[in-house]
Every structure is written in C-alpha cells, then in structure tokens.
Design brief:
Blueprint (H helix, E strand, L loop, with lengths): L4 E3 L4 E5 L7 H12 L6 E5 L1 H10 L5 H13 L4 H7 L5 H12 L4 H6 L3 E8 L5 E4 L5 H11 L9 E3 L2 E5 L8 H6 L4 E5 L24 H8 L1 H17 L3 E4 L14 H16 L2 E3 L2
Parallel strand pairs: 1-10, 2-3, 2-8, 3-4, 8-9
Antiparallel strand pairs: 4-5, 4-7, 6-7
Helix pairs in contact: 1-2, 1-11, 3-11
C-alpha cells in the first residue's frame, strides 16, 4: 500500500481537536512533526489541542508529553479531591501557573517570535459562540485564553478573557476546520482524538435549571453540542473521502478517558500518535 502523502503549501492548516487526556495522541503527532522540522503556516487548537499547540509553536519538543504524562504521575493534578476543594476537576493553579512559570517553563519569547499563525478557541458564555484568539505577546493573556479553552463545563469554573466569561472551546467549535477555511487555509491536516466512525449520542443534553442559569445561550450550545460535533465529523470524513484534506486519528476505539489517570494507557496513545504521524509522507513546499 502506498504511503499516504500530504503536500505542504502556503495554504496549509493544522487543526487540533481537544478531548482532554486523549490529547496525548496529539502530543505524539506534534513531537513527530517537530522531529522532522515541519511547521504549518496556520495552526488552530481547541482545549487540549490549544495546550499542546502552544508547545508546538514554541518548538519545545517533548514538553506536552512531559506535562500530560510524567507530571500527571508525579502531581496527580486530575482528581475528585480538586473538584471538592477547589471546584475544578483539575488543579489549574498547578497547570497554568506552576507548570509554565516554574516546573516546565514555557518559552514565551520563542512563541512570540515564530512566524506562523496560531489560534486558540474558547466559547463565550454570553453568546454560546466560538471565539478565536491569536495572542502571542502578553504572557498573562495567553494563559487566560488557554485556561478558558480548557475549562470543561460542569467540572471547571468559568474562566475570563478580557473580562468576558468563557468556557471550553469544544462547546461551540470542537473541530474548527471551517475557521481555517474561512481564513484561506484550505489545505488542511486534521488531528482527531477519536477513531474513524466515532459519533456522540445525538440526544440533547439535559442541564439542571440552576446550572449556568445566567447564560441561556451557553446552555443551548451545551445541549446541542453532540449534534454539532457529529456534523463536524461528517464534514471532515466527507472532505477526507474526496481527497481534500488528510486526517490523523487513533486507529482503534481508544480506552483513554477525558480525565484518564492511567499513565500506561496515556503513553501507549502518545506512541500511537507519533507512529501515525511518522507514517505520513509530508512533502515540503
């Protein structure tokens, strides 16, 4: 069987789905791209995809893997204990302060000076619509954006960007392919964190009336998130079948949960991401 090919161009875009800890698949993909010196003119990431994309744009090979696997094993930053005592299933103080500033410092200057575009996706709680940010120069605003993009509904508190209440970008735009195409990037490589054919249950989510009661449009967006996700997946698969984009995804249904803490499972999924990317013949411009 011929090796799959992807030809880089000035219109190349890299779309990174979220998926919580399933994003270690994306870590493997991005580490392989860095090992080959491959940079995309445009990258857009959602939730975990935004977190991992930041390390890719700063050129810090292995940083996302170390954060997601090695430091999880050491610091146990996903826990019901954090939800009970801090109101967040994840320790955001550790993830978005200690990690980037002290434990595994983020290279803000390298990111600020890179030529490529990078956008992170959040959901505006007031409108239920996606917001797209490309901040490169203000470290605190970068953290505010990526924290908001990663703030899971129900198990994380609302975050704020420029004083605006925000939550996980995956609520409004899980796979921001249309955003890339709107900006003129129509030669895309999409990294998904579910196997081919995966679909969410179509039923509308039921939300207790006291949750997000101040944000009715956010509630509506959450209720219809599954059907929107399935529509986006169908569009990706259709364009893939027509040869109009390339998709990297896990080959089998994966056993890693969104808040997975089993590091052996996470390492196996990381390795699969690296192997899948290595099997793609990427032809430079």
């Amino acid at each position: 069987m011929a090796k799959a090919q992807y030809r880089m161009s000035t219109k190349s875009g890299l779309i990174l789905e979220g998926g919580g800890m399933r994003g270690v698949f994306t870590c493997g993909v991005l580490d392989n791209l860095m090992d080959r010196g491959i940079r995309f003119p445009y990258t857009i990431g959602v939730s975990a995809g935004a977190c991992n994309g930041l390390s890719y744009l700063s050129g810090q090979r292995g940083r996302a893997k170390y954060s997601n696997i090695d430091l999880l094993d050491k610091h146990h930053y996903i826990s019901l204990k954090h939800l009970i005592f801090k109101g967040n299933i994840m320790d955001f103080d550790l993830l978005f302060d200690d990690f980037p500033n002290r434990i595994i410092p983020y290279d803000y200057p390298a990111y600020a000076n890179c030529r490529e575009q990078f956008e992170m996706v959040t959901t505006d709680c007031r409108t239920g619509q996606a917001c797209y940010f490309n901040e490169k120069h203000d470290p605190q605003r970068i953290i505010d954006i990526v924290k908001a993009s990663s703030s899971l509904p129900f198990v994380s508190p609302i975050s704020y960007v420029d004083g605006v209440p925000m939550l996980d970008g995956g609520i409004a735009d899980s796979i921001p392919l249309l955003r890339a195409r709107e900006l003129g990037f129509d030669n895309n490589l999409v990294v998904l964190t579910r196997n081919k054919g995966y679909r969410k249950a179509e039923r509308a989510l039921s939300i207790p009336p006291f949750i997000y009661r101040k944000y009715p449009l956010l509630r509506r967006a959450i209720q219809h998130r599954n059907s929107l996700y399935n529509e986006q997946i169908s569009m990706v698969e259709q364009l893939e079948s027509e040869g109009r984009l390339i998709v990297l995804r896990p080959e089998r249904p994966i056993e890693v949960d969104r808040i997975e803490r089993n590091t052996s499972k996470l390492l196996a999924l990381y390795d699969e991401g690296y192997t899948c990317a290595a099997a793609l013949d990427i032809i430079p411009q």
